Amino acid sequence: MEPAKKPANAKKPPIRRRDRERTRREILEIAFAEFAENGLTGGNTDAIAARANITKRLIFYYFNSKEELFIAVLEMAYAKMRLAEEGLHLEALEPEAAIRRLAEFTFDFDQANPEYIRLVTIENIHRGRHISASRKLKEMTRPIINQIAAVLDKGVRSGVIQPGIDPNELHMTLNALCFFSVANRHTFEAQFGWDMSSPKAKAQRRREIADLLWRHVRRG
């Protein structure tokens, strides 16, 4: 007896949501490594598909274009840092402890995530056009700026931090210091013969950045 035929209009069973999400996450993680190593232009969707053990068509099922995939990778990378920042709870600390904790966290995150630094550098080469296209990325910045603003306000009220410091400017100054330690390490070491890679050198730089940031904001 032949097996009963399915009706012509029978629908395929839907892919379970968790499977779709897992596949999408795997694509993003592999694409993150590919873009961080080779940039947007050099990043290869065939290589991403091969490493994910999927077809390239499936990549474009989840992401309509290579640039859309790159934006999603940026969103994932920044979200990782922003999520970690939420756990700082700077408002619960005294101002000096909060400023030092912020500096140490930022330094440690950048040191532990050099691929993130490369990805940000690549996006700057593209003049930030992909970040500009993402509302999600713009919204991610507010929580950490709000945390910094709260620390500054608390410090001003208690008389230990000088008034008039812009939280965005402070955030930029801190990121410039920490970013350089990763992004420019190879060229700086080659030019000046200066150790930036050993645990001792990193610990010293970490202390110096925390000291610099606190001296910059403190009153008197």
From TrEMBL:
Pfam families, sorted: TetR_C_29, TetR_N
Domain HTH tetR-type: 21-81
GO MF entry, a single one: DNA binding
SUPFAM superfamilies, alphabetized: Homeodomain-like, Tetracyclin repressor-like, C-terminal domain
Species annotation: Bradyrhizobium lablabi
Record-linked InterPro entries: Homeodomain-like_sf, HTH-type_TetR-like_transc_reg, HTH_TetR, NicS_C, Tet_transcr_reg_TetR-rel_C_sf
Keyword presence, DNA-binding: yes
Protein's UniProt name: TetR family transcriptional regulator
DNA-binding region(s), chain positions: 44-63
UniProtKB keywords: DNA-binding
PROSITE patterns: HTH_TETR_2
